[in-house]
UniProtKB/TrEMBL annotation:
GO terms for biological process: fucose metabolic process. It is a single-pass type II membrane protein. It comes from the Eukaryota. It comes from Leersia perrieri. Residues 1-30 form the signal peptide. InterPro entries: FucosylTrfase_pln, GDP-Fuc_O-FucTrfase. It is found in: Membrane. Keywords: Carbohydrate metabolism, Fucose metabolism, Glycoprotein, Glycosyltransferase, Membrane, Signal, Signal-anchor, Transferase, Transmembrane, Transmembrane helix. The keyword Amino-acid biosynthesis does not apply. The lineage of its organism: Eukaryota, Viridiplantae, Streptophyta, Embryophyta, Tracheophyta. This is O-fucosyltransferase family protein.
């Protein structure tokens, strides 16, 4: 950890907290971040070099194999379930997990989920263009029946495709909606088509086996196609050729800034663009920049990201991979960051030639996802429900508690504001005090509104020396191969070699 300057009150606060862990909340409240989302986690004086290894597991490891009797899906189907996922790559990813759970509880046959091909993503490739279909079918064969399209039916000597009844499911529908209303319609028509299908099944399900099924889909069955894995692999190898690297999801993009309503820092012309986009796409609400920022709703600026990394003590030679689309405001915002951390890369600068044409739309997002998943450290700059950063945090937790740096924007906002007003004394100490009050990707309790897809602990984890018998790691696995897959993944994890091998059957992703 970098140390500088004379002893100042905030730094003493950290020091005291280290000596007497109980003091932490006193200090925390004075800094205005009581109510930090990580209940009970204690401030530690973190050695920056330790962040390059994974967070402590406290004896936990990932496991999403069933722990109670889990019969195979019944031979008789109640009908066919067709869904149309919408949103970005990761919103659709959670929707796929939900569709599998829905099919399981309805004893339905799932039709391979349809992915959104909306204008934003300009991507027509669909599920088979992004994900490895044979692997998906194989991994879930103990859980549900899946077909790649609706079957043909013959009635009155005519053969035609079975038609599915279109239904718009309620947002965050409970399990009971599926097993009553939707099931009745399915039995009546033979097939139903749920659209749109994002956030259509409640995240809180009071059944750990169904939650584990979600993890089996998310972390085992959904694997990107070989060409995406290959490009990601090449990028990761290049970035690791000289040691470790960090990935940052820099969500400083036009749509996000317009949505968040954080526009005062832009030129009048840029503000016009953001306001117009906001009017066209989002509800008409008056948003005040200062207020938005103080409640943590503004994405971090590239400069703020640099200041945080500097305060934590990362060397300016740190290799950084940026996952993002177009940075709004361009170089004006990037150059202060690049001045602090010159070794910045993205998939265009470090990827193989002709990468651009390979990585448009969802596939481009998938490459960024893989690189961020395999990076030594990951830092999101904005998080919202079911998005790229949130899913990655969950996946990295599952993949062996990989270090994740999650800035508490709400706690940091007043510190940055003071700095902008010229009060720079103690700036770095104050930032450190906020930053070191997090779990860095270790096991931690999920507290609303944290999503199950961001944190599947404890359901999808087991303890190797449990105090509580229900946390015990399953010894015999009714899912042939599943546990083996995990073991293999672990070994790979430890060596962090290549992801080429993840293209073989033994691994997840
Ligand atoms: C699904 O099948 C299982 C086992 O055959 C049965 O116990 C359960 O009641 C069925 N559920 C529905 C909704 O059909
Ligand atoms: C949005 O709200 C503002 C003021 O609250 C109002 O002047 C404007 O007409 C509204 N625009 C739309 C499209 O509703
Ligand atoms: C990086 O840090 C080193 C030592 O801390 C310093 O000498 C060098 O000037 C810095 N480089 C940049 C680009 O800031
Ligand atoms: C990637 O980096 C290059 C070079 O630094 C830059 O020109 C380009 O705009 C960046 N691309 C994205 C999508 O940020």
């Amino acid at each position: 950890m970098r140390r500088g300057g004379a002893k100042s009150p905030p730094r003493m606060c950290v020091a005291v907290a280290v000596l007497v862990a109980g003091t932490v909340w006193l200090c925390a409240s004075s800094a205005g971040f009581l109510g930090a989302p990580y209940g009970g986690y204690r401030v530690k004086d973190v050695d920056v070099n330790k962040l390059w290894t994974t967070a402590g597991s406290n004896g936990w490891r990932a496991s999403s194999a069933p722990r109670s009797y889990w019969p195979p899906p019944p031979y008789e189907t109640n009908g066919y379930l067709r869904v149309r996922c919408n949103g970005g790559l990761n919103q659709q990813r959670s929707a796929i997990c939900n569709a599998v759970v829905a099919a399981r509880i309805m004893n339905a046959t799932l039709v391979l989920p349809e992915l959104d091909t909306n204008s934003f993503w300009r991507d027509e490739s669909g599920f088979p263009g992004i994900y490895d279909v044979p692997h998906f079918l194989k991994t879930l064969k103990h859980d549900i029946h899946i077909v790649t399209s609706l079957p043909e039916i013959t009635s009155r000597r005519k053969t035609k495709k079975l038609k599915a009844l279109k239904i718009r499911p309620p947002r965050d529908a409970p399990l009971s909606w599926y097993t009553t209303f939707a099931l009745e319609e399915m039995k009546k028509y033979g097939a139903i088509y749920l659209t749109p299908f994002s956030h259509r099944l409640a995240e809180d399900i009071d059944d750990p086996e169904l939650q584990r099924l979600r993890c089996r889909v998310n972390y085992h069955a959904l694997r990107f196609k070989p060409h995406i894995m290959k490009i990601s692999n090449e990028i990761v190898n290049k970035l690791q050729s000289e040691g470790h690297f960090m990935s940052i999801h820099l969500r400083f993009e036009m749509d996000m800034l317009a949505f968040a309503g954080c526009i005062d820092i832009f030129t009048p012309e840029e503000q016009k663009i953001l306001i117009k986009y906001r009017e066209e796409n989002f509800a008409n609400k008056t948003l005040v920049y200062r207020e938005r920022r103080l409640i943590g709703k503004c994405p971090l600026t590239p400069e703020e990201v640099g200041l945080i990394l500097g305060a934590i003590g990362f060397a300016n030679s740190t290799r950084i991979y940026l996952a993002s689309g177009e940075i709004f405001g361009g170089d004006r915002f990037m150059s202060p960051f690049r001045a602090m951390f010159p070794r910045l890369d993205n998939h265009s600068s470090v990827g193989p030639e002709k990468l651009e044409e390979n990585t448009r739309g969802l596939a481009g997002s998938a490459v960024d996802y893989m690189v961020c998943l395999l990076s030594d450290i990951f830092m999101p700059t904005y998080d919202g429900p079911s998005n790229f950063a949130n899913n990655l945090m969950g996946h990295r937790l599952y993949n062996g508690f990989r270090t994740t740096i999650t800035p508490n924007r709400k706690a940091l906002a007043p510190i940055f504001m003071d700095r902008e007003e010229g009060h720079i004394t103690g700036f770095e100490d104050r930032v450190r005090q906020v930053m070191f009050n997090t779990h860095f990707g270790g096991p931690h309790k999920r507290i609303h509104p944290e999503s199950f897809y961001t944190n599947s602990w404890p359901e999808c984890f087991c303890h190797m020396n449990p105090k509580n018998p229900s946390d015990k790691c399953p010894s015999d696995d009714p899912h042939e191969g599943l546990e083996g897959q995990l073991q293999n993944e672990k070994t790979e994890d430890a060596t962090l070699t290549t992801i080429e091998s993840t293209q073989t059957e033994e691994t997840m992703i």
